[in-house]
Amino acid sequence: MDVDASAVIAGAGPVARPGERPTVRLRDDAASEEAPRYAPEWLQLREPADAAARAMDLLDPLRIRLANLPGRSGGLAVHDLGCGTGSMGRWLAPRLDGAQHWILHDRDPYLLHFAAVASPRAAADGSRVTVETRRGDVARLTPDALVGASLVTASALLDVLTREEIETLAAACAGAGCPALLTLSVAGRVELTDPDPLDEEIAAAFNDHQRRGGLLGPDAVTAACEAFADHGATVKVHPSPWRLGPDEAALTEQWLRGWVGAAVEQRPDLAPRAEKYLAARLAACAAGKLRVTVHHSDLLALARPTGGA
Ligand SMILES: C[S@@+](CC[C@H](N)C(=O)[O-])C[C@H]1O[C@@H](n2cnc3c(N)ncnc32)[C@H](O)[C@@H]1O
User: Fold this and answer.
1) Residues in domain Methyltransferase (predicted)?
2) How remote is the CA of residue 287 from the centroid of ligand 1, in Å?
3) Nearest CA to ligand 1 atom 24
4) How much is the average pLDDT of 238-263?
5) Residue 31 pLDDT more than 50?
6) Is residue 307 assigned to a domain?
7) Which terminus has fewer CB within 10 Å in the chain: N or C?
8) Is 121 within a domain?
């Protein structure tokens, strides 16, 4: 059984490039070519599980805030940060009333292309939804970039940012006075049926892998709560776990390979035991006997209104 990074779909785990052995990749945005890539196949595979996991309880407080935003009559301007192939917009736009213009941000032009092609067209009440794409580094977002924003969203993004980047994001949202719905950040906890003594060691190594290069990984939600609260925002957090069973076997298989692969990249001494572990888990998955809960959190930050959108 292969726990090598080359067996893992890009985005599900550590990414191997042709001819490259997986090694610690330092975070250096000057070398953005080195930033990990997310395969559209991975984002498409996870989209239904993400949709099922999203915390519905945050929608009503968000709708109430949006209904009371000054300048709302011109429609909503929604900035989706790290949009990937646009999964967040496809889920949220049809759940909000009124005309919407989505500004889809990502640093990967290939993913932006997918997002533009499969963008949502209609709001909950049938109003028009339009989109534009913006290529760039969302970790350097300035308040200027959010002028006129009604809402900032992100999905599966916070955990790949640093504390400083989250503070920059919180400051930009506070400057714009707009709410932020930041969903599906990993919580660092996983439950599998038929618990195995190696589960915890792999989870701990995976979490350490996520923290490489100063990224927040499972600490992202706590850091975001602090950053938004420091700007006077009211912050609500709700669980949004993936609950994966036999119907999600393809996603579970890729997730398992990525989870174990990252753990072994972090702790190569785990490799001999992890190979057997992965083989057994994949066999159970293929037999429809594995259930996995991967814990995430959704966060809604309601900024102090600035008095004009
Ligand atoms: C795990 S994917 C999630 C994609 C999408 N939001 C979804 O839920 O399917 C993370 C996305 O964030 C983008 N991303 C990560 N860091 C970024 C940064 N600093 N600036 C812009 N985009 C970034 C990646 O290119 C990728 O599309």
Assistant:
1) 78-174
2) 33
3) 82
4) 97
5) no
6) no
7) N
8) yes
